[in-house]
Design goal:
Order of helices and strands: HHHHHH
Distance between the termini: 130 Å
Shape: elongated
Number of strands: 0
Helix content: over 70%
Length: 141
């Protein structure tokens, strides 16, 4: 019985060390994958908010993404599947994507605030700079 349990534990340990998905030859590097997934998130957001505009311009989000990053659909799918088979790597990639999205969101909020402040300043400036005319004509009496 003891040998059976040891054999079972050995098989279990051996099977856990087995790779689920083999590393593809054309694996997209991790940092590039972060950028691709970041862009994909932004494009999907644009697709949901400006779908008609994308359709009008005949822009296919995935084709645009592949062309922009000089990859193809097979390379993206294989790389995504490979990283997904390593949960810690996949989580790390998505944490970096999330950090990039948060950074981009903060930058956009800051720019928007600066724009609003600039507009407010422009609108208030003429009121502050009103020049009151003083009658400087002299009357000789």
């Amino acid at each position: 019985m003891r040998k059976v349990i040891l054999l079972f534990v050995g098989i279990l340990l051996f099977s856990c060390g087995e790779k689920v998905v083999e590393k593809p030859e054309n694996l997209i590097p991790k940092e590039k994958m972060v950028l691709i997934l970041h862009d994909l998130a932004i494009l999907n957001a644009a697709k949901s908010s400006a779908r008609l505009e994308l359709e009008k311009r005949e822009i296919d989000v995935m084709e645009f993404l592949y062309r922009e990053h000089k990859i193809d659909s097979a390379q993206f799918s294989q790389s995504d599947l490979y990283y997904a088979s390593i949960p810690s790597e996949y989580q790390s990639i998505y944490e970096k994507v999330e950090a990039l999205l948060e950074k981009k969101s903060t930058e956009i909020e800051d720019l928007s605030k600066k724009r609003k402040d600039s507009l407010k300043e422009v609108r208030e400036k003429p009121q502050e700079e009103k020049i009151t005319k003083v009658d400087t004509t002299k009357t000789d009496n």
